[in-house]
Amino acid sequence: MNTEKDILILGIESSCDDTSASVIKNGYLLSNSIAGQKVHEEYGGVVPELASRAHQQNIIPVVDIAIKKAGIQNSDITAVAFTRGPGLLGSLLVGTSFAKGFSLAQNIPMMEVNHLQAHVLAHFIREYNEDFDPPRFPFLCLLVSGGNSQIILVKDYLDMEVIGQTIDDAAGEAFDKCAKVMGLPYPGGPYVDKYAKEGNAGAFKFAKPRIANLDYSFSGLKTSFLYFLRDRLKENENFIEENIPDLCASLQKTIIDILLDKLVKASKETGIKDIAVAGGVSANSGLRQALTDEARRRKWKLHIPKFAFTTDNAAMIAITGYYKYLRGEFVGQDAVPFARMDIRE
Ligand code: KG4
Predict the structure, then answer these.
(1) Pocket residues for ligand 1 (CB within 6 Å)?
(2) What CATH number was assigned to the domain covering residues 8-131+309-326?
(3) How does residue 318 score in pLDDT terms, banded at 50, 70 and 90?
(4) Lesser CB count within 10 Å: N end or C end of the chain?
(5) How remote is the CA of residue 80 from the centroid of ligand 1, in Å?
(6) Interval between CA 279 and ligand 1 midpoint (Å)
(7) d(C-alpha 73, C-alpha 59), whole Å
(8) The whole model's pTM is what?
């Protein structure tokens, strides 16, 4: 039963290649449905044109499923939140347009959500009958995905500052691009993770960047990996097939070392020991283990989200929308998505 005082937020996410819808009631998750897009696999990366078409096909069924799973009707929704950006413009337009139509049809307010803020606020998705121990402000969040590698100082729900970020590739891109060179399917991150479990992380050494501040760089690693393989393949054309586990384990360790090095530095500089991780790469088992070890060593309070909330999902859009709703931060029908956005926008 929903009363008039209940706040039910419908969240819509369509920034890249996942179409997702979620319903959150008074901050508690009722449903989170996602349709992935297999169409990109054969291209080795997301094809924007195909992504927007797939969103167009998926959006209505995905929302229907989310509403049904939540056990509610369209008319029960209090407000609708959608991803404004950053992301692929054609993909964002599908979610934005859907939200506008839904808002008009139901005569309810609309909130635009910054996808990066939403990844961070995924830590505040509450589930019925589960313990809830979210990070306390201020905390640091390592946001690692296919498009971002950032250390974020989170001062409040909607008050965040990037204190370190990649100057070139993201950590997810490093995983995916190196995996592609090894002939692994796209996206390669999960495959590297899988093979790394059977490999020796000390087998090979790859270049690590030397940057003084809290920024990251992963393009040098990608080049170093590529040249290393090119040289070894000259000596042995089966080098990759014969060494996949060791290659994956060594690559993964290098990426994790780079990520943790700056995170430790950020914690020391700010004195903050509440540490969270977010984004697709936080699904990596090696990274989770390394963070857990580091947390024990440095007495951090570590927050790792559930797997379902690390990759793109609408529950994180709905929870961010919920906090915007509470603050009365609404947008009108003239709202437009943006491909590029800073975490503060
Ligand atoms: O946040 P996310 O779902 O979306 C975008 O940024 O678009 O992150 C996707 C990234 C991809 O680069 C993927 O390879 C990486 O997350 N990823 C992983 C793992 N699972 C997903 N990387 C390493 N290990 C994993 N287990």
Answers:
(1) 16, 145-147, 172, 175-176, 187-190, 192-193, 279-281, 283-284, 311-312
(2) 3.30.420.40
(3) very high
(4) N
(5) 27
(6) 7
(7) 17
(8) 0.94
